[in-house]
Amino acid sequence: MKLIDPVVYVENYDGEEIMKFLANMASTCYNYEFDISKDNYKDLLLKCIKNDHTSILEHKTITIKMIGDSGVYKDLERHRYATFSVESIKNLKYENELKLMKPVNIEEQTDFYYEWEKCVKKLEESFQIMKKEGATEEQLRMIIPYSTAIEMNVTCNIREWRHLLSLRTTFHAHPAIRQLLIPVLVKFKQDMPELFADIEYDTEFPKEKYAKVLSLQII
Predict the structure, then answer these.
(1) Position 209 in a domain
(2) What are phi and psi of 92, to 5 degrees?
């Protein structure tokens, strides 16, 4: 089996331009005139968020690509105002080994890790036997574990990103999700502070386990 590290690819964006654009949308509602070259657009955004006038945040979207375990998607797909394009498990092409995510919540060199490793190695062995004997992709999918590494594209408007990240970066979210989304939230906070600074997250989650964040290159 091949163990994969988590990665998040974030679409290139200009955080300041996004905030100015959204402030322009909000200014229509309030008949509010401001000099876009100055920082008073930030005050308008903060006012909208404070008053829960967040529909104006739906005018801009950001797309990310994540490499994580298949269980992550099972949780995230509940967010109905997000758009997902996900690698199909039954279409995964494995030659000699399964591609699995390193378990974020099972420490290496522990009894639990050895049991997990033993389990997935047995699954991999059975997978290859079934494949050699002519099992269909639909049949092979039945033994694929949640640890299977898959790619998933997620597009949300800014309002939905606020909602999704406020739920999926707290202590109550699965560690595999926190591992992927906390670094995304940290990036958004840095690039668009007026839009994301108020969202709290699990600051106790180990930074060394954060997924690497890279630029999403569109070919």
Answers:
(1) yes
(2) -65, 135
**Along the chain (219 residues), what's the average pLDDT of each consecutive run of 10 residues?**
95 96 90 70 92 96 96 90 88 76 95 96 92 90 91 97 98 97 98 97 97 87
Q: Answer yes or no: is 44 within a domain.
A: no
Contact 181, 161 (CB under 8 A): no
Ranges of H-type helices in 32-79:
40-50, 70-76
pTM, rounded to two decimals: 0.92
Contact status, residue 159 vs residue 54, Cβ threshold 8 Å: yes
Distance CA 167, CA 173 (A): 7
Distance CA 94, CA 101 (A): 15
The CATH number of the domain holding residue 118 is 3.30.1360.170
| Number of compact structural domains in the chain | 1
Residue 85's domain comprises 1-12+61-219
